[in-house]
Write a structure and sequence with these properties.
By secondary structure, the chain is of the alpha/beta class. The protein has 3 domains: 137 residues, Gyrase A, domain 2 (2-Layer Sandwich), CATH 3.30.1360; 95 residues, tRNA modification GTPase MnmE domain 2 (Four Helix Bundle (Hemerythrin (Met), subunit A), Up-down Bundle), CATH 1.20.120.430; 97 residues, Rossmann fold (3-Layer(aba) Sandwich), CATH 3.40.50. The protein is built from 12 helices and 10 strands. Strands 3-4-5-2-1-6 form a 6-stranded mixed β-sheet, covered by helices on one side. The chain has a 4-stranded mixed β-sheet with strand order 8-9-7-10. Helix 5 packs antiparallel against helix 6 and helix 7 packs antiparallel against helix 8. The termini are far apart.
Length: 340
């Protein structure tokens, strides 16, 4: 007897794939699984009019169809339907997309109708998809590898042009190709090394001797150098993905708030000739050079050097810009600036 988990994994799933359930022009509902075609046929049936039955559209050809509620027979919408039988689909399974009018009542009516089908068709599980389940099925069916899955997640979360470009490169297999090249090199070197260990003392094998190891050493050293270079890039990819946190710190009236307003292109912080105008930390999200940044404007320091250094390092930051005005703040030494 098959386990409930196996049934769960082979269920046909559906979800609103175009974003939150809000009023919009077009909403896309996606289905994937073995009963995808049966579910579509149920939505195309009209119990009150069987004279002109609607057919499932030709594969990968957009067609307009009327959708009906399986129980009441009420018309739900006139939708653009795409039918993509597996394995030539995103998930590798049979996939259907319903491009609906984006009203809440329309979308909710179609989702409710699909939920009804799970109870009406015995042995045919149809349920709402979990978060990321379409991508999980694509990975399980060999349509995507882990680097492409990560690239897709980054693309969906991209807020800047640099993030978008990095995500698309990863989806195109930039990292996978590099890793596969390293893997092939390691396998070849390992195979030659094992051959030397197993047959190096055999006089009958003239082409397997210690000289082979001398040929492998520069290859391995070059591979090691490439991997170390890749690992020591300073986390550039992570900085692009996660963004950068920057703090503007320094004495009062050094220009921190003015710089923040210039970067934000709006009066995000109050600027005044009176020292101590900024009392709390003001954070502004910006895009600088295509990289997302959170720039924090802090209150001016009046304390001694040790207190300044302690306060600065209490933040989890990527960069700290320290403003110094020596004429009005002689107590702040170059040592405090260097410590930042």
């Amino acid at each position: 007897m098959s386990s409930p988990q196996s049934h769960y994994e082979t269920d046909t799933i559906f979800a609103l794939s175009s974003g939150p359930l809000v009023k919009c022009g077009v909403a896309v509902v996606r289905l994937s699984g073995p009963s995808c075609g049966d579910a579509l046929q149920e939505l195309l049936k009209h119990s009150g009019d069987s004279s002109q039955p609607q057919s499932v559209p030709a594969p990968r050809q957009a067609s307009v169809r009327r959708l009906y509620c399986p129980e009441s027979g009420d018309e739900l919408d006139r939708a653009l339907v795409l039918w993509m039988p597996g394995p030539a689909s995103f998930t590798g399974e049979d996939v259907c997309e319903l491009h609906l009018h984006g009203g809440r009542a329309v979308v909710q009516g179609v989702l409710n109708a699909l939920s009804m089908l799970d109870n009406r068709r015995e042995g045919c599980g149809i349920r709402a998809a979990e978060r990321g389940e379409f991508t999980k099925r694509a990975f399980d069916n060999g349509k995507m590898d882990l680097t492409e899955v990560e690239g897709l997640a980054d693309l969906l979360a991209a807020e800047t042009s640099v993030q978008r470009k990095q995500a698309l490169r990863q989806m195109d297999g930039h990292l996978r190709k590099q890793f596969e090249l390293w893997r092939e090199t390691l396998i070849k070197c390992l195979a030659h090394t094992e051959a030397v260990i197993d047959f190096g003392d055999d006089d009958r094998e003239d082409d397997v001797d210690d000289g082979v190891m001398n040929l492998l050493i520069p290859i391995v050293l070059s591979l090691r150098s490439d991997i170390e270079k890749h690992l020591s890039d300073g986390g550039k990819g992570e900085l692009v993905r996660e963004g950068i946190r920057i703090a503007l710190v320094g004495p009062p009236n050094a220009g921190k708030s003015s710089l923040l307003n210039i970067l934000a292109r709006r009066p995000a912080a109050i600027v005044s000739p009176i020292a101590g105008t900024t009392r709390d930390i003001i954070e502004v999200r910006l895009e600088l050079g295509g990289v997302p940044c959170v720039v924090s404007d802090t209150a001016g320091f009046r304390a001694a050097t040790d207190d300044v250094r302690t306060f600065i390092y209490s933040f989890t930051l990527d960069f700290r810009f320290f403003f110094v005005e020596f004429k009005t703040n002689p107590s702040l030494s170059l040592g405090a600036v260097a410590a930042c």
